[in-house]
Amino acid sequence: MKSFLLVLVLCLPPTLARAMDFRIEGETIHASGTIEKGDADRFAATVAPRIDGPLFTVSFDSPGGSLLEGMRLGEAIHAAFAGTLVERGRSCLSACAIAFLGGKAFGTYAHQVRREIEPGARLGYHGFFSGREDQVELVNEVLDQSRLVNALLLDYATRMRGIDGGLLSELLTTAPAAMEMIDTPAEIAGLGITLVGDPLPLPEDWPAIACRNAVQRMIGAFADAGPLVGTAENAAASLEALRRTMLDDKYPAEGGAGDLRAALAGLDPADAVDLMAGEPVYADPDDPPRRVALNRGGGFLGNACYAMADASVVTTIVVDGIDHKATFRQDDPLFAFDPHRPLW
């Protein structure tokens, strides 16, 4: 891991900096401006006492500021059981992005995080640095700066929950003068973030992507699902056609399951599909799941993957014609996007 320097000063010149302003509008706490020393205490004293329900959210628009105060502000937000948000067209950069990680669910769900961004939001991380060009200002002159900043940030990330420490460390090796924006499904998932707002249009190749992601989950991170996934085919013309195709994939005619094939062929098509999937599929008769051919190899025995998606969930069913198994899973809409392809 690269070492990186610790910011103890503001990202903006002192003459341009202004302390963060907290403005409460309904259940939205608008937090704008630069993060300066004392902001966390002001939030705890004046804002936190007004948070008394599950929908209170800190909506950020900030260029950054003091790293340590950003962590303290994140801790104050976490302790107040408030969510965090960056809206479309707004920015939360540098130390603000650290504070953003403090978002937490309220009450019964308080063991869960609540961090949200809208498509087009600018949530950015980079390496931290001193505003002085001639020297690095240390929190504690006795401790090595690199070990100190890593320990502080990783401990903070652990306490905030739901954060991939390896991803955060990688983001923070970005050159101090640059900024790594969070805009891919992998980054969003790695920081425990939920994408909210208007749904993104699905990519043209979403069935193949969803099936590749499903197969990747089955075979593990150290294998490559790419060669196992073919191309998407057109959706079945009807539930009856879907039943026939899935029968052939899960119980091939030459596979010795003639009695089972006959029984499933005699059921209502939707019921037969549900039984073969192992879960209720709720397939739309006018838009049945799309079939993606799979290739066997490396111990993977899948014949085909069936994918369908709507604004709230992506469903995949990986069918194995050797062991006559079906792996059913439902995921959030980002499962239909390439994990490493920017969304905006």
Automatic annotation (TrEMBL):
Organism taxonomic ancestry: Bacteria, Pseudomonadati, Pseudomonadota, Alphaproteobacteria, Hyphomicrobiales
Protein name listed in UniProt: Lipoprotein
Span of the signal peptide: 1-19
Keyword Signal carried by entry: yes
UniProt xrefs under InterPro entries: ClpP/crotonase-like_dom_sf
Keywords tagged on the record: Signal
